[in-house]
Amino acid sequence: TENIDPLAGRTRYTYDARDNLTTVTDPTGSTTRYAYDLANRRTQETRPGGEQTQFVYDAVGNLITRRDSLGQERRYAYDEIKRRSREEHYPVVDGQLATSASRVITYSYNPLGQLTAYRDAKPLPGDTWQLLSEATYTHDALGRKVSEDVNFGPFRKTFTTAYRANGQKQSLTYPDGTSVSFNYDSTGRLTTHQTPGGDITTTYHPSGAVSEVKLPGATQSRVYDKLLRPTQIQLERGAAGSGQVLHKLAYQYDAASDIVSKTTLDGPTAYQYDALSRLTSVTPPEPLQRSETNPSGLPVESYSYDGVHNRLSSTHQPGPWVYNANHQLLNHGEGTQAVSRTYDANGHTTRIAESAAEKRLSYDVAERLTQVQSESGTPIGAYAYDPFGRRLKKTTASETIYFHHGEEGLLAEFDATGNSLTTYGWEPQGMWGTSPVWKKEGSNTYFYSTDHLGTPQVLTDSSGQVVWKGRAEAFGKTTVDATSTVTNNLRFPGQYFDAETGMHYNYFRDYEPSIGRYVESDPIGLRGGANTYVYGNGNAATRVDVLGLMVEICARPLDGPMFPPELNGLLISCRLFHTYLRVNGNDFGFFCSGSRCPFWGDGSVRGPNVENPSNPMCTRLDCINEQVLMRNIQADIANPPRYELWGFNCQRWAGDQLARAFDPTECSKSCRAP
Question: Which of 115, 276, 434, 518 is an S-S bond match for 454, by CB 3.0 to 4.6 Å?
């Protein structure tokens, strides 16, 4: 079978007699191959360059060994009901697989199957251990996590959570004593967020979308079109209508819901796209454009791509862009701007060489970036992670910072002795890493105002003064305004800026905003797309990659002439929503077409770029084979089923797609973050 994209690029798939996917050939001709055992479990993946990853299972189907392309192994053990109980990492030393583990992680559970503790340690000679981290989790009678006690090594910290009867978060208490609480309306929407710097109140459009957020000292208002796409986001000092506009974003869209114009107080930015919705041109406001008199200004950006979203040209980064069969960027730029890169067998960048400097990158057995050094071996940054992939610690030449991540995003930073540096607050109903609300440093609290994706634009203090402002290129490289008086490291949704490297930590990977690519290959392989390095498939204006991998089911209140705004409160109460799927940031939904709609008619599967990308009403799903899911979605786009409002509707379509793509071998291969 094959898929043909709007630019006539062909992606070809072959299958064995048991319908297992055996090869994927992308539009550039690169082929990835898969092998399976008699139980249809994937045993080997061979990338276009010949690198192999192998998988071994026990008699009941549990993955017990993963051997990567460097020969390193991760070994797993399970309890009697198939919960992971132990994980061991074995590196390759002097060309040979080590006989003793470099890292051992153990997991404990309660009778309900909830994770209650983990211990992560490094074995040392003499049967001793170096503790890396450990944590214990306490749950109430309804199974809700009420406390989390984390041992970072030099110190311990405890976070506690309280809930309403319906399960919504009522309060969160941080280790430094900071406590925040949340109030909701009768439909379950957040109305008040009580923060260390004062209360934040939220009101809603009849459709259910946020219309106004009153911050201490400032007010943010939002206006939407009929498709619930934001057309204006405005921040004013004091109350709305005060006339003291601090920041403004006005959007215009094309028929594919791509942003074609974004106007700020500095003027309009124009965007152009190709047939695959990839950014081909970005023209910032003239006063902000880079020039001889403004060398730190924003560049006029213009790009071209190959069939799998690799950049072939960039006007502000002139010179050739060269790739290998694995779509790894080898060289780009020219003259003093020339940059070359090398990779290990797992597909991760190990060397970035520029004319003035060179960085060397190292990874652990979990394939996480652990160290960045200069060419001479001088440490630039060192990094450590918990068993769930969340950054736990980083050390630079000037400081050591410990991190704690919660269900909504980064919650706290501590210094080397456990003193609180920064605490963060998030919208409790938002998708991970997309809804920052406030940050507290010392006795001062600052408030975030974000764009349509959830990327911070400005920070204000309790009096409404702007204390941080950033201006970003299309793919996230940010210049901080010279008037800023505080630091903000949050960038694209889910990303954290590392000043020592210029990269963004992005949960499972690290991102280079200057080139719009990840340093590491996507850990889910081709399930995220044919190119395992690019961000947002060449469109960072409307797409996000919060974790670097994701399938979600999303909902929004029904709209249109049959569902006028005055009914929306009732619709929310009786759960009449449009339901759709989002696969790595790309949305797909089932709609009715024809004169008899919305009751029945011809069906139409539409996407991507139909829905509001910042919709918070999305739930991440595990155990979904993304290749099967996307193959079935593409089949329905070509030959859609018939639509019936009270029969096979958008909700039934989404549920059917997920049921058909359910695959227990795709379930999370490690314990999910609690």
Answer: 434
